[in-house]
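Lab notebook, bench 4. Still working through the backlog of constructs that have no structural model yet. Next entry is a single chain of 726 residues. Request: give me the structure tokens for it.
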Amino acid sequence: MSYHRPGPILLVAAVVVAVIFWINRTAEDNGMGTKDTEMKAKQMEAPEAPASPRDITYHGITVHDPFAGLKDEDYPTVDDEETLAYLRAENAYFEAAMEPVEGLTETIFEELKGRVKEDDSSVPARDGSYLYHWRFEPGAQYRQWLRQPVAGGDEVVILDEAQRAEGHDFYNLGTLSISPDERYMAWSEDLDGAERYRIFVRDIESGEIVDQAVSESVGYAAWAADSKSFLYTVLSEEWRPYKVMHHQLGAETAGDAMVYEEADPAFFVGMSKTQSRAYFIILTGDNVTTELRLIPTARPGAEPVLVAPRKTNHQYYIDHAGDLFFIRTNDTHKNFRVAVAPEASPGQEAWQELIAASDTNYIRGIASFEDFLVIEERLGGLDQIRVRYHNGDEHFIAFPEAAYTARVGNNPEYAIDTLRLHYESMVTPDTVFDYPLAERRLVSRKVQEIPSGYEASDYTTERLWATARDGVKVPISIVYRKDFKKDGQGRLHVTGYGAYGSGYPINFSSVRLSLLDRGFAYAIAHIRGGDEMGFQWYEDGKLFKRTNTFHDFVDVAEHLIAEGYATAGNISISGGSAGGSLMGYVANSDPELWRAIVAHVPFVDILNTMLDDSLPLTPIEWPEWGNPITDRAAFEYILSYSPYDNITAQDYPPMMVTAGLNDPRVTYWEPAKWVARLRTIKTDHNLLVLKTNMGAGHRGRTGRYKALFEVAEEYAFILMAFGERD
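Model written out:
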């Protein structure tokens, strides 16, 4: 059984009290209601970032960066006291700004907690002689992991995250993996959000920790077949996964043998196992190119066997069953096909087509079991799951709604006759299905419980299509209460992502109900840059087509306005990471549309980051954004849309921005610089706040209730922009 949670001053000692004018949109500003004079009540001066300008010149073009010094020169160590003092002052400012809605925040927090099943647990999954599952104790922030003999007997706690997290502000479990002989458990922990994991190994029967030598890893431990050693991936000082090492249980890491090292700084190294557990898979690649090597788990010291040499824009993945390898590849079509190759000869020259590529069916993933292959696909923007027996018989699994998300769940064993699935829609809570293949029917094993109550019939979901400015049809998923009126007087929240070929799932969210029940419609814009409509949908939102992503989002909002869901200036929006780039762009391009913007760990200083090849994520990102160091056209194009570089002297809506001090993906200085520059240029007095998690990273705070409180803060901020206080 294996569980893996897989992917940039001086200040006055105290912040001076003065006047904040967070001006709620006035009747003159947005044609909605009257001016809320109470929004001027809280008084405190926004912090002033240290001026630390730098000019950069590439391709004969000079760009001014007024806050370059917010990047600590010792990064990844952040110990510059002036910078830290500034971030702390911003946090104090955030707390003061949120004080008028403390009661509302607590009200929403209680709502969110009321929808959480206190003693929640997962559906047990069989792996060998045991059933494995997790559970929450009432009131606990973190899970317990348990196993119970299939033959009967008491269940045993094999890992208690709450105990491991005790004394730490941040705790993240990276992997939990049971050795093939079922004696040992390997798990990994990150204690500060920097995503540098230490791997521990426990003898389950005795409870003794027998190994904790491996640190600075990505957190995944892949056991060898004899249960005496495992492979792991090493992080460089700059946070690039670049080596795979072989560790003998109980030994010092100094003696670990190197299995593979990737020399190209633009390529990251990852690792997994085939479903059969017969092979380790060493994967190296960037965002558009992959290269795989295989090692038998019975011979972890063997020389890795190359499957197909790297070729730019060729992505492939491999799995194994019987005497065959199954390969998902885009070598002939961008929507991928499935090929097979004999186990003795997995090279590309031996690949034979099993499932042809299609202009309509986008093949997103495969998993090969003893008797059948499972193919995750997307057709018309909706998930499909195909079961193909090794004798050639096949069928698609039927799902009950017209718009939904479906995915293959936790199926640790290789020889199975029942497939575990996850299913949800915008009105259907997360549901665990078992699918007995012989019966071809869905058997519900668990439906997410909402203890405070939830009636799906009170809500309606639709799938809409907006026409983008270039004529492309962009899908929208939207949900609202049935009493919501499409007369332009309602409230609307829109979110999106649109990058890296990661489609935004049509998902259920219990936290979202706090907006729906306050009169909001909630929309997901499935914009280009994701893969909702196939791989071309992704390609049409990257590199020199990147602005399609941003334009699609605005055009979705305009479409929803035209359909009566809201009026301009009465729409709140949110996005994180690359979705934060989206927030930054549309804040610059169309500020009059938005009532409030929430940008989580936003990637907004795009040009400077893509010019900084000392950051480990920069070279691997060039296929996504372009390389402005060597390519003048890429430099000019990124400069034309990079949110930090395109702030203008205009009014911006209220904005809430978050960051993580230890974030290795979007470094803390990006949102900090963006907020500082916005403050010096924008012409309004609307509230602009920055909240930096000083002991966390890209994912924010850990612990189920701590994370919910951050959602409550976000929603209270949005509602405050709409004039609510309680």
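Notes after review: Residues 348-450 form one domain. The radius of gyration is 26 Å. Flag for follow-up if needed.
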